[in-house]
Write a structure and sequence with these properties.
α8 (185-196) packs antiparallel against α9. The chain is elongated. The protein has 2 domains: 2-92, Phosphorylase Kinase, domain 1 (2-Layer Sandwich); 97-213, Transferase(Phosphotransferase), domain 1. By secondary structure, the chain is α+β, with helices and mostly antiparallel strands. A hairpin with a 2-residue loop joins β2 and β3. It contains 9 helices and 11 strands. It has helices at residues 6-14, 48-51, 54-67, 99-105, 110-125, 163-173, 177-180, 185-196, 200-213, and strands at 2-3, 17-22, 25-31, 35-41, 74-81, 86-92, 97-98, 128-130, 138-140, 146-148, 154-156. The strands form 3 sheets. Strands 1-5-6-4-3-2 form a 6-stranded mixed β-sheet, sandwiched between helices. Strands 7-9-10 form a 3-stranded antiparallel β-sheet. The protein has a two-stranded antiparallel sheet with strand order 8-11.
Length: 218
């Protein structure tokens, strides 16, 4: 990973539009030519991030997803700065809109809800344990297919996710109450079950763990 001077990074940030930030500073910047800059900050003096760059992890996850024919961002470069330490990844985004925005435009859309359930099942069967998986990190492309963004917080297994891992992942998928107001949960479940190739008790188990993961809607 090459090292960039802080002044060079700041110049790059100033050339784009900041679309996400926190008290540490800009986190996601839109650059020219449909490029994105994602910045990871080292929040503690001693941390695992110092041992393993999250920018490199982001790039590695993108490569692993593509090997599994899962649409995701296109990595252009990774680099870091010193004092303060920041790890960065530059990438091309995915053309389309988030599932969250699509469902806000057409709440309770039966077809999209079912397609989404099917897609999450495909991810689980591909061994993708995406801790940040939610409606805002899934992009629906113009051709109707789906892709993933914000992929740093992910583990990709050789085998399908276990039942326990699926249950944990559903807790992430459904953690926002507002999302549950715009999806048709019954259709999502049908879509998920349609990919499992299971029968009887296993289908009922999938339905049970999905419904258990849903927060109470206020």
């Amino acid at each position: 990973m090459k090292t960039l001077q802080n002044s060079e990074l700041n110049k790059l940030i100033d050339s784009g539009t900041v679309i996400e930030k926190d008290h540490h500073g800009p986190k996601v910047v839109v650059l020219a030519e449909h490029r994105y800059l994602k910045i990871f900050y080292h929040k503690n003096r001693v941390s695992m991030a110092k041992l393993r760059s999250r920018a490199k992890q982001f790039a590695s996850n993108a490569a692993k997803l593509k090997k599994r024919q899962i649409t995701t961002v296109g990595i252009l470069d990774t680099f870091k700065t010193d004092s303060p330490r920041r790890d960065c990844v530059c990438y091309h985004g995915i053309p389309g809109d988030t599932v969250r925005n699509r469902l806000k435009q057409q709440p309770q859309d039966l077809t999209l809800s079912r397609q989404l359930g099917s897609y999450v099942a495909q991810l689980h069967d591909a061994g993708v344990m995406f801790r940040s998986l939610h409606f805002g990190n899934i992009i629906q492309l113009d051709d109707g297919h789906f892709g993933l963004i914000d992929i740093a917080d992910m583990r990709i297994n050789v085998f399908k996710l276990s039942n326990w891992q699926r249950k944990r992942n559903f807790q992430h998928v459904f953690r926002y109450q507002d999302d549950m107001k715009i999806i048709d949960l019954d259709e999502f479940i049908k879509g998920y079950q349609s990919e499992s190739g299971s029968q009887g008790a296993r289908l009922r188990y999938f339905e049970e763990i999905i419904r258990q993961a849903v927060p109470a809607v206020q």
